[in-house]
Design a protein that fits this description.
The chain has helices at 2-8, 10-24, 28-33, 83-90, 103-116, 125-136, 142-149, 163-171, and strands at 39-40, 51-54, 70-73. With 177 residues, it is mainly α. A 3-stranded antiparallel sheet has the order 1-2-3. Helix 2 (10-24) crosses helix 6 (125-136) and helix 6 (125-136) crosses helix 8. The protein starts with a helix and ends in a 6-residue tail after the last helix. The mean pLDDT is 89.
């Protein structure tokens, strides 16, 4: 229906991309490589949530740290509303790209959107903003943040314990931002 038509519009797909990168702590490259078959639906007796299969070994695409088959549950309470979105993004041939845009198009629109909001940000900052948000809101313990973000060292994750910094930055925003 209408949701499917909206997700065919690149801007709506880009918005879904932003939400996915933010909540799954993805690197932008990882998100751009996603295929429809990498969006794994819940399976009775196995998982209650949609999941991502990041850099499947069959395609010989590795993550930044050289890993294959990273799994990330799309279980954020922040995106409980997005279940139909995940389903729509997964529809079609399993080897088809999830997104109908390339990184250059995304970056152009991302820069425009942040400029219109009076912000300065890059898509890569979403990977770090998701964990900061989850920790500040008490949505995930630190060890879950580490596992979800696929950081090897706990030292890499400690930066997300700075709740006061998140609050201070949010305080700077105007209500319309």
């Amino acid at each position: 229906g209408i949701a499917m038509e909206l997700l065919r519009v690149k801007e709506w797909q880009m918005a879904a991309w932003v939400v996915l990168v933010f909540t799954a702590y993805l690197r932008p490259r990882e998100a751009m490589l996603l295929r429809r078959g990498d969006m794994v639906p819940p399976v009775a007796g196995v998982s209650r949530h949609w999941a991502l299969l990041v850099c499947p070994q069959e395609r010989e695409e590795r993550t930044k740290v050289g890993a294959y088959d990273d799994s990330i549950a799309l279980d954020s309470p922040v995106t409980a509303w997005a279940l139909p979105v995940w389903k729509i993004l997964a529809e079609g041939p399993p080897d088809a790209k999830v997104w109908d845009f390339d990184y250059r198009e995304l970056l152009t629109n991302f820069k425009m959107a942040t400029w219109l909001l009076g912000l300065e940000a890059t898509p890569y900052q979403l990977r770090h903003s998701g964990p900061s948000w989850d920790r500040a809101r008490g949505l995930r313990p630190l060890d879950e943040v580490q596992k979800r973000g696929r950081w090897r060292a706990m030292k890499s994750v400690m930066r997300y314990e700075k709740h006061a910094r998140v609050a201070a930055e949010m305080e700077k925003l105007a209500p319309d931002q």
